[in-house]
Amino acid sequence: MFFSIIVPLYNRPVEIKEMLNSLLDQRYPHFEVIVVEDGSTKKADQIVEKFKDRLDVSYFFKENEGQGFARNYGFERAKGDFFIVFDSDIIVPADYFDQVLAGLERDGLDAFGGPDAAHPSFTAIQKAISYSMTSPFTTGGIRGNKKHVGQFHPRSFNLGISRAVWEKTGGFKLSRRSEDIEFSIRMINAGFKVGLIPEAYVYHKRRTSFQQFYKQTHNFGKGRIDIYCLYPKELKPVHALPAVFVVGLSVLLMINVINLLTMDAIYFLHILGLLGNTFLILYTVLLFLHALVTTKSLKVALLSVVAAFTQLIAYGSGFLSQYAHKFITNKKVGE
């Protein structure tokens, strides 16, 4: 089988160099790489050029339209039997294609997604973010787990589709924000078999600061409402849990302030504050202990608690703001 790797790129020349370096070590040699520069001001053409004597790699530059349409641009030029979509901020393990081939043969998949993990070279913050995005105690726990909620929807940092899927679906219909979930839903509705290959993982850098991570996960929350507008049945109770967390945290903060400022504490509010604070402390301790066991680093475990709260608050607030935006102001998807 011949694979075509499609990588959309926007102002990340250093990251694509590291990713291409990792592809040099692949045990399975039958693949090409298509880098699609999506209107970047920091172009990576010279970096990609240096790999052409060692990789079957092509570079294209197009006007900025978003990563979804950049991937479609790559699909149109791909020669492979199977297309693999990567984000530019990943490192690919040497046995990646071996695992993909085994999973495709075992499960008879037309499209698949793989999980992500933290590489030893990642910074402590990157490892903490990786923990948060894969932890069973945050919204990330279902990403690389067979025991996910409902139908598995591959994410575009590590996504594979057959040529038949591309030809029938036409690829991505949304350019940004939850474009991969929307695409996954259409694949499944078209009758293709879609699943997770747990062994086909990649090392995913994600964001390098909590500020960047907040912005990213805030958009994830908004995107879930966008998907709800298009496919109402795809919204599950679990998707609203971060929003419940944000509302509960806000209410608890107000209760604590009232209890501190009130000379004669209101009994009902005192009990609510006690229960809420106890739950929050227990949850924080549980997060820390699990992160400590998982990452085997005190520093990363402490940062993982920060990452988890950042993720929940950002996703939940994005979910709530987009819900208000769509159903109070009646805006269309993408506005």
Task: Provide a concise account of the structure shown.
It contains eleven helices and ten strands.
Features:
seven-stranded mixed β-sheet, alpha/beta, transmembrane helix, Glycosyltransf_2, globular, 13% strand, Spore Coat Polysaccharide Biosynthesis Protein SpsA, Chain A, Glyco_trans_2-like, 2 domains
Characterization of the model:
By secondary structure, this protein is of the alpha/beta class. The chain has two domains: 3-114 and 154-208, Alpha-Beta Complex (Spore Coat Polysaccharide Biosynthesis Protein SpsA, Chain A); 234-327, no CATH class. It contains eleven helices and ten strands. The strands form two sheets. It has a seven-stranded mixed beta sheet. Strands 5-10-7 form a three-stranded mixed beta sheet. Helix 5 crosses helix 11 (298-327), helix 9 (241-261) crosses helix 11 (298-327) and helix 10 (267-295) packs across helix 11. The longest helix has 30 residues, at 298-327.
Structural class: alpha/beta
CATH topology of the largest domain: Spore Coat Polysaccharide Biosynthesis Protein SpsA, Chain A
Q: What is the count of DSSP helices, taking H or I runs of 4+ residues?
A: 11
Helix content: 40-55%
Protein name: Glycosyltransferase, catalytic subunit of cellulose synthase and poly-beta-1,6-N-acetylglucosamine synthase
Organism: Sphingobacterium lactis
Keywords: Membrane, Transferase, Transmembrane, Transmembrane helix
GO molecular function: transferase activity
